[in-house]
Here is the input.
Amino acid sequence: EPEVTQTPSHQVTQMGQEVILRCVPISNHLYFYWYRQILGQKVEFLVSFYNNEISEKSEIFDDQFSVERPDGSNFTLKIRSTKLEDSAMYFCASSGLRSNEQFFGPGTRLTVL
Amino acid sequence: QKEVEQDPGPLSVPEGAIVSLNCTYSNSAFQYFMWYRQYSRKGPELLMYTYSSGNKEDGRFTAQVDKSSKYISLFIRDSQPSDSATYLCAMASGSRLTFGEGTQLTVNP
Here is the structure.
């Protein structure tokens, strides 16, 4: 069964450093998303991406964040200068024609020291 | 008022019990309703997807939506220890999902 994959599973970084989280969405999907979940809190929407551009973003997704689909298979989230409060699980998701029927990857745990 | 409210539990039931999980919402624009299961430190797994009022059944799971009351439920029949997880309701009007807090369920053998 096709699934969303994410790398790395755990990333540790120093405050102020740049990180890139990587995702391979399900191959025939059209919509791509990033969500985050701070430990003990609810899953929060960051951004949606369709047709090579951002279609929607939340107030969390400020200028420190960017997304890219550099080739036909990968989808990345870059955080330019990490802060302590960026520590969270980051989930990539993708969907087909029904944009809100979203399938999630296993997540990348980001720890900012 | 929160857009989506979900009782965080924890909920503990014996094996074989019927489990009822619930969410309420305040945003009338929500048209699509999902239930996800999340095991500890894993990604949410889509269990049920529906967009109309009424019931939708899939195996031991039944999703119920009442748009007039802004209330959704997930019923699990014949619950198993492997059902022990956190259950998240999620709702959407467009492509952005808004999640509930999650209800932690433990099914005891």
